């Protein structure tokens, strides 16, 4: 067991019965105790993360990684936003539709979300045109607009995943089926 620790130069002595024993100073013993406590704390944290992910996946209506970027709607009298089509600010986020909220996690193993929005605050959900980035994969996209003017733009490399999210959000937000949301936006 002690061979697992990386403490070099420990004085090994011969014990009786063919077993070897290690002689440690008080400082070395305290260091090992601290290291063990740190490992136990890390194990507990990882176990909590695993249980959290398990709970999310079991109870969520929909979850998965999407590329996300946020935009704010221009206020009355404000100039229209600049065309930022050339800006690649799409970031992968683990998105969870759970209860009356959408949660945005940095990673699926995070214990708390980076952002969230209430389904009751969503006023519009719809498709965006598909696009191709440097990785030469087509990304299919849609948007979620809140009553506060915050617009989440979401993208996926899977058309099926896009359709699933659009249908689920329109159903959960009671926005009614929009036929253009189900069709491929690039065909419009």
TrEMBL record:
Protein known as: PH domain-containing protein
Taxonomic path: Eukaryota, Viridiplantae, Streptophyta, Embryophyta, Tracheophyta
Stretches assigned to the PH domain: 59-174
InterPro entries for the chain: PH-like_dom_sf (IPR011993), PH_domain (IPR001849)
Coiled coil segments of this chain: 22-56
Pfam family, one: PH
Keywords from the UniProt entry: Coiled coil
């Amino acid at each position: 067991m002690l061979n697992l620790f990386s403490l070099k130069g420990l004085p090994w002595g011969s014990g009786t019965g063919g077993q070897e024993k290690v002689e440690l100073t008080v400082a070395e013993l305290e260091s090992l105790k601290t290291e063990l406590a740190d490992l136990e704390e890390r194990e507990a944290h990882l176990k909590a993360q695993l249980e959290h992910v398990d709970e999310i996946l079991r109870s969520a209506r929909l979850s998965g990684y999407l590329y996300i970027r946020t935009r704010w709607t221009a206020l009355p009298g404000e100039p229209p936003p600049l065309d930022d089509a050339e800006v690649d600010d799409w970031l992968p986020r683990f998105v969870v539709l759970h209860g009356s909220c959408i949660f945005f996690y940095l990673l699926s193993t995070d214990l708390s979300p980076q952002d969230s929005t209430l389904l009751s605050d969503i006023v519009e959900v719809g498709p965006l045109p598909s696009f191709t980035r440097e990785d030469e994969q087509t990304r299919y996209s849609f948007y979620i607009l809140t009553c506060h003017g915050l617009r989440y733009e979401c993208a996926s490399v899977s058309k099926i995943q896009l359709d699933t999210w659009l249908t689920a959000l329109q159903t959960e937000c009671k926005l009614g089926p929009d036929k253009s949301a189900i069709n491929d936006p690039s065909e419009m």
